[in-house]
Automatic annotation (TrEMBL), chain A:
The chain crosses the membrane at residues 29-50. One of its GO terms (molecular function) is xylosyltransferase activity. Its EC number is 2.4.-.-. It comes from the Eukaryota. One of its GO terms (cellular component) is Golgi membrane. Gene3D superfamilies: Spore Coat Polysaccharide Biosynthesis Protein SpsA, Chain A. The keyword Oxidoreductase does not apply. Belongs to the glycosyltransferase 43 family. Residues 483-497 have a biased composition (Basic residues). This is Glycosyltransferases. SUPFAM superfamilies: Nucleotide-diphospho-sugar transferases (SSF53448).
TrEMBL record, chain B:
It comes from the Eukaryota. Residues 49-344 form the Exostosin GT47 domain. Its main location: Golgi. Belongs to the glycosyltransferase 47 family. Residues 1-22 form the signal peptide. The keyword Mitochondrion does not apply. It is a single-pass type II membrane protein. InterPro entries: Exostosin, Exostosin_GT47. It is found in: Golgi apparatus membrane. This is Exostosin GT47 domain-containing protein. Pfam families: Exostosin_GT47. Keywords: Glycosyltransferase, Golgi apparatus, Signal, Signal-anchor, Transferase, Transmembrane.
Amino acid sequence: MKLSALHQSYLNRRRSPLDSSADASSKSFLAVFWLVLHCLCCLISLLLGFRFSRLVFFFLVSTPSSTNLYSPPFRPDLPPPRTDLSPPNATAVEAKTSSSSSRVVVGRHGILIRPWPHPDPVEVMKAHRIIERVQREQKAVFGSGGKSSRAVIAVTPTYARTFQALHLNGVMHSLMLAPYAVVWIVVEAGGASNETASIIAKSGVRTIHVGFDQRMPNTWEDRGKVEVLMRLRALRVVKEEKLDGVVMFADDSNMHSMEFFDEIQNVKWFGAVSVGILAHSGNAEEMVMSMDKRREMVDEEEERSSLPVQGPACNATDKLIGWHVFNTLPYAGKSAVYIDDVAAVLPQKLEWCGFVLNSRILWDEAESKPEWVKEFGLLNENEGVESPLSLLNDPSMVEPLGSCGRQVLLWWLRVEARADSKFPPGWVIDPPLEITVAAKRTPWPDVPPEPPTKKKDQMSLSQGNNVVVIPKQQQQQQQQRSSKVRKPKRRSKRNKHEAKPTDTTTQVSASTKHHQERN
Amino acid sequence: MKLTSWVLIFLACNLAFSTISAFRLSRSQPTERISGSAGDVLDDNPVGRLKVFVYELPSKYNKKILQKDPRCLTHMFAAEIYMQRFLLSSPVRTLNPEEADWFYVPVYTTCDLTPNGLPLPFKSPRMMRSAIQLIASNWPYWNRTEGADHFFVVPHDFGACFHYQEEKAIGRGILPLLQRATLVQTFGQRNHVCLKEGSITVPPYAPPQKMQSHLIPGKTPRSIFVYFRGLFYDVGNDPEGGYYARGARAAVWENFKDNPLFDISTEHPTTYYEDMQRAIFCLCPLGWAPWSPRLVEAVIFGCIPVIIADDIVLPFADAIPWEDIGVFVDEKDVPYLDTILTSIPPEVILRKQRLLANPSMKQAMLFPQPAQPGDAFHQVLNGLARKLPHDRSVYLRAGEKLLNWTAGPVADLKPW
């Protein structure tokens, strides 16, 4: 079928010169000539197959150009040129063709392929920058329904301890990712320390580091009270500096979802969100037992669900009618009292982290503040401020956020290390650690020596002591090798530093020989 | 004193108008009004500016054909059917032909479909000729002007040339009887036989409800740089490439098939409309004809159209400044498409997106039922209104004959 189509179109094209010639004898000669040519082409196509014969004929007849396979088709098909051809760029609306020819030609064109048809990394990067710019614009326009977004003022009470770096980094990353202007007020119990300052300096957001003179006590109850005082201290900073935005309480061990930051932009004066309570106990067995107990409870009374959620409760018309509070009954008597107790840590009745407020509530001038808000400046801290509802005259005016508390937007968790746990200050190993592991003792001899922390764990099982001791004889050699000990820790760069570990192994083996000699 | 009060009133009115136009925006995205005369033309209301008389043709020219194949209502040539329905119930319609400025002949020439759904144009010249003979013999208005104040909707591939193959279409040329009439067609290419001077180019029909139902929230980030779904090689008719799309689509494939920025393929996913809304640029290359519904879809979904078709005439080119909205790439520049697109400054891209977000732009591309102000029907009427009043030369003197009723291939002269 395709063969016949080709020959048909071919014959069509050929017919016109045939018709135009007037001489009878030349007509017959031409007819014979074309017939012979036609038979020749048939034979060629039989031999070579359809595609190759077309290519052969194509190359025989047309004059190929070097770079472009474009061959001008047969002109008789086109109408005679119009005499009133206006210049190509007459109309202002269209006009892209070059001045050489404004007429597009019908027929076969070449497929233009550039010399190296592969992606150019420079172009790809430029395109990604364009995509980023477009997405930023989209966020600005559509993100918060077109309203201008308000700054997020995060209040974090903290103190220097083993798990501080873990918790604070988590909060920091959440705040860095939030697509809003962030002011981070970090209140530190025991005074502002360099530890905390060095952690929050990496955030890149505006931070206000406030020292609080009291030290953090050792029981959860007292800690809660001190945290309340620290938060009020931070709110006083907001009032004094007249910071404008939405105040949220980011306790350093909590986890926030990104939707939380989007949702709190909708608060008018005072809002509440649902908080997922992760009251964990360190003891696995106890967890299992409590899970079984909970299942028994559920079988007996299905209504009383132990949903670990704290937050606003709404009726069918989405009006605030009360509060969901964490059910502490299953944990009665078994909750942790001291900070490093291996038991469930229970939250307060209403945790501060579940509330957000418009910072203007705290300001002095009472111009647009609603009447159901107490004057913050007159608040007496010694009266025992338990939850942020004490800042209000009328707690029923709180706005429930997150589709009326149905969405859990953040999680409350309290995890702390043992009271006597030590950690290198700033998490930098300097002075050098006290234990080295001989390379020969490790199962993989061609790998740099295990970081001494592994040995630390092994020792703690036996001794229950997390302290690392350097025998004084090896201290000098350790100092020489301290730079090299640090690098092998980065396992991913093993290939690059392959030469170096072998050096350390030889050095370490020398030291073990040395060590053995002494022993 | 009086002058200042008038100035104040004038300023107040201006303020009122600007706020009113601000409220017209349906979505909260800041859009840009097309500055200059073109922007105002889009919002023109044709009602009261012209009168159209619709001929009552026997139903074998329209309704019966539609009954035989209801697929005509949903394919991309459905504009001819909806145009008639719109005109029948529009306020511009007049039942008195003496006061009409324009005459409309409702004949569905693109409704003879193959089992696959593609229209066969072989009988269309005869059908058109038969319709014209009918109106010429029953009403005096055709002979009065030999059709110069009549308009026809011919949405087929090459308009009134009535053929799907370009060479054959050029060979036939526009139907001789339509030489003086105004043609409303989708095909538009400069210096081409099948585009008559004074034709109105319209967009192809795209189903408005279907596109509306696939809208996604505007804040979904646009993460695809360039998007295209369609054929690169027409394997059935042109396996090696070179004829189809003048080799442009094949060039796009060969140059960019492994480029991560180009999401191009021949698969037709179910999320086609949603993907377009997640793309920044949508390619609209020519196919066998230079126009395609992709342009309409790109405008509706806010994706900047990249038009790869030399000398194309886009719909409503006198009302919509396509240069400001889309990107034009010559067919010979296709191998450098990535360089061209990445070298567009981001501010220009954002401006194009704002222009595309203008709801009047999107309305002008659609044929909604029932008709809404500012849609493609009204733009056609605007175009017709702009051609009024008719020139003196339109009306023939007594006995003057300009059309050749026996011109054209012999097969076309057979009665239908």
